[in-house]
Amino acid sequence: MTVDENGNQRATHERLLKAEAGLLRLIRDETLFTYLTFVDITVPTTNNRLEGGVNAQLRGMLRDHRGLSLERRLKAVYWWCYEHSPRPLPVAEILKCMPTDKTIAATYRRIMRNNRPDNILPQWGDAIVWNEFHMSTEFPIYWD
């Protein structure tokens, strides 16, 4: 037990004791190790099928084709997803909805126009001045 600044006694490692009580309650309610009761269920070794299945293959494809422009890389991702979809559309249909280099470039121009860094950076009179919030005194302030 530890005595706090008010003279009250409390547990030394209070948070650790709360965690232990929570774990004991979960074990008592039989909700902590429920996977042990269903032994005959096959569970995949990884719980994230996107990272090992789809995203890793997309990253590998983009790594193999590093010299492509940004527009071509996006189109390569579209085509990869099209080729690996369970029910792909006919090629004529996919070409109608597939973005072109022009539409991708126009989208990027619109995004860059709206999110231009000079819209974010403060202009004269917009920024916080250090001296407005910190007064200089003869006493040193080491925490600032």
UniProtKB/TrEMBL annotation:
Top-rank taxon, per record: Bacteria
Descriptive protein name: Transposase
Source organism of this protein record: Veillonella ratti
